[in-house]
Amino acid sequence: MKTELVTTDVGFDQLRGEWNKLFENDENATPFLDWQWCRLWWKHYGEGQELAIAVVRDGRAVVGIAPLFIQKKAVGKRLRFLGVGEVRAEYPAYLMAPDCREAVMQELLQSFSQTGPLSRYVHELTALAADSSFWRLLMCQLHQRGLRWHVQMVERSWQIRLDGSWDWYLKGLTRNQRNKVRRLERDMVKHQFRCRIARSLADWHRYWPELVRLHQKRWQALGGAGCFASRQFKSFHTERSRRLLERGWLLLLVLEKDGLVIAAHYCIRHRGVVYGYQAGFDPGWQEYSPGNMLRVYELKEAIERGDRVLDMLGGNEEYKARWANASRPLLRLLFGSSRAAACVRSAAARQRFRQWARKNLPPATFDALRWLRYRLLVGR
Q1: With a cut of 50, which residues of the chain have pLDDT below it?
Q2: Please, what is the Cα angle at 9 between 36 and 233, to 5 degrees?
């Protein structure tokens, strides 16, 4: 086996067929590792960064891909996964052929070792699933190779496992939450709310702008900007959602009242897992809990389709814990060779200080320190 680096857009495009084949054969691959997802992210967010996709070949066959780029930061450069930042692609992993995962991992880590082409960089993985086979294999190899590393739990991701019927799921909820869900079911019928799913391009053209509008309206009512205030975020997901529709992976649901869309959910459905990515609702209808009402419909539809899990992804929002019947830790891992050891230690120290400051300092003081650090780094 040998590793080559893809550093150009042309090389990225030429890799599409082999990437897609490897993706289909890797049972652990999530939609956030799909070639199209990564390529669109690079198109919208790659300006000023360096592409560094590590490709492992066994002969001519591609057996492993680490979808990476070199992020330029004020404190130095880091290797990161395509899809990080505000897009927040969770559960990063290397794509690996199922019959040679250990050998591929060894070859990829050689690239980060003392003599490898990426040895001078710290490799950062965020939102890494602590119960994944990728995590276990990676940590085993890091120990064996003596690479420097630092790991930290940052939050939890929340899942709704759909192993049985709707009644089976309800029995697992607290009595208070179960009563709320039953009331939502009654209100949906009583007040004649209607749920729709985008099944065609015409539906997408109608419902996608509503999702964006409702998401922004909700967050602006709370005094926030909303994710779609970012031009890059909006452009990326508008293009990506349409591509998902073409592939049958998009699950765009809306709740209507007398023809007016008052709530919307943007999900990705892949291999029996529904990833709840973004949502919004009209605050003017908040007394009816339209977002939760749509969640009830979403869950019933998923059970009827035979989906295994509705993954609400990471975050410490209270509503996720109320709906979930399972969760798992998400980790942030930094590692590198001895050449990058000082950077790993420095990053770990900064991380520990941020945690302490966020927990112990008043919010205004914490924000002032962040502003001061930014001014010092940019020299203004």
Answers
A1: 342, 374-380
A2: 50
For helices 231-247 and 201-221, what crossing angle results, to 10°?
Answer: 150
Count structural domains, the chain: 2
pLDDT value at residue 55: 97
Q: Which domain holds residue 181?
A: 164-307
Cβ atoms < 10 Å from Cβ of 302: 21
Q: For residues 101 and 136, what is the distance between their CA atoms, to the nearest angstrom?
A: 12
**What is the Cβ-side half-sphere exposure of residue 279, based on CA atoms within 13 angstroms?**
22
Whole-angstrom distance, CA of residue 288 vs CA of residue 293: 8
Q: Rounded to whole angstroms, how far apart are CA atoms 84 and 96?
A: 20
Task: Render pLDDT for 174-199 as a digit per residue (tens, 0 to 9).
Answer: 999 999 999 999 999 999 999 999 99
Residue 61 belongs to some domain of the structure:
yes
Tell me if 227 is assigned to some domain.
yes
Q: Based on the number of CB atoms within 10 Å of its own CB, is 170 exposed (0-12), middle (13-18) or buried (19 or more)? A: middle
Q: Is 18 exposed, middle or buried (0-12, 13-18, 19+ CB in 10 A)?
A: middle
| pTM tops 0.85 | yes
Radius of gyration over alpha carbons of the chain, in Å?
Answer: 22
Strand pairing class (122-129; 326-336): antiparallel
Q: How far apart are CA 109 and CA 118, in angstroms?
A: 9
Residues 227 and 342 in one domain: no
- Looking up residue 99, the CATH number of its domain turns out to be 3.40.630.30
Strands (E), the chain: 2-6, 50-51, 53-58, 61-66, 68-73, 76-81, 95-96, 122-129, 148-161, 194-197, 250-257, 260-270, 273-281, 309-314, 326-336
145 domain-assigned? yes
Per residue in 88-118, pLDDT tens?
A: 889 999 999 999 999 999 999 988 886 778 8
Residues 94 and 210 in one domain: no
Residue 300 is assigned to a structural domain of this protein = yes
